[in-house]
Amino acid sequence: MSASHWNGIKVYDDSNYRELIGDGKSIVIAGERRLLSAMPKPANHDSRKYSKVFGSEIPVIPRSEWSARIKEQRAIKACTSQIQNWASDNQGSYPTCWAAGTCAAFSTARVRMGLPHVRISAMSLAQPISGGHSGGYEGDAVQYLTEHGGVPDTLWGYTDAHNHDNDPQVQASRLLFKSLESYECNGFDEFATAALLGFPCTISYNWWSHVVMLCDLVEIEPGSFGFLDRNNWGEDYGSKNEFGFGGYVLFREGKGTPSGGFAFRQTTAYSIAA
Amino acid sequence: MRRRVSGLVIFLFGLALLMRGGVGIGGSAPFETNKLSVLIVEETAQRGSLTADQRAALTAIGDGSMIAAVKARGGEYRIIDKDQTDLSKDVPWVAKAFAVERKSVPWIVAAGPSHGVSEPLPATTDEILKAVESAK
Question: Which helix (DSSP H) or strand (DSSP E) does residue A127 occupy?
Answer without folding.
Answer: helix A123-130
